[in-house]
Amino acid sequence: MMLAPHPFGHDITEASLVEKFSAFRQWEDRYRQLVMLAKALPPLDAALKTPDIELSGCENRVWLGYERLENGGIHFYGDSEGRIVKGLLAVLLTAVEGKTPEAILARDPLTLFDTLQLREQLSSSRASGLAALSQGVQDIARRCL
């Protein structure tokens, strides 16, 4: 039984996000979609919100945890108190969920954000939060090597 299951990387894939976001021309539409993605990420059980998985460098509190899968991949899970940051986390989970440490480290996890045109409108605090999330994922991948 997987800790904190979510639909990202399984039911919601990079391809489905690219398809959905490619229809949006306005930042407001992308923003609304991020909020929708945040709602699709189930809240993390309070028992899992431990200090050791809380990331620093984010305006809102953010948790990023993981567990190793039998196939060598990594299952990531997380939560945030901020809706937009939680939406950004959902996109990040889509990019890295279930992948091996090698695959995660071979490709910048933020590439998907550029494809979806999600980075250019972020406030500096959200951009630094996103960088902290990406760094967190890469740190976990390095630990798992």
UniProtKB/TrEMBL annotation:
Keyword Ribonucleoprotein: no
A GO term for molecular function: cysteine desulfurase activity
Organism superkingdom: Bacteria
Gene3D superfamilies linked to this entry: 3.90.1010.10
Keywords: Transferase
Pfam families in alphabetical order: SufE
InterPro entries: Cysteine_desulfurase_CsdE, Fe-S_metab-assoc_dom
Protein family per UniProt: Belongs to the SufE family.
Name assigned to this protein: Cysteine desulfurase sulfur acceptor subunit CsdE
Species whose genome carries this gene: Rouxiella chamberiensis
Originating gene: csdE
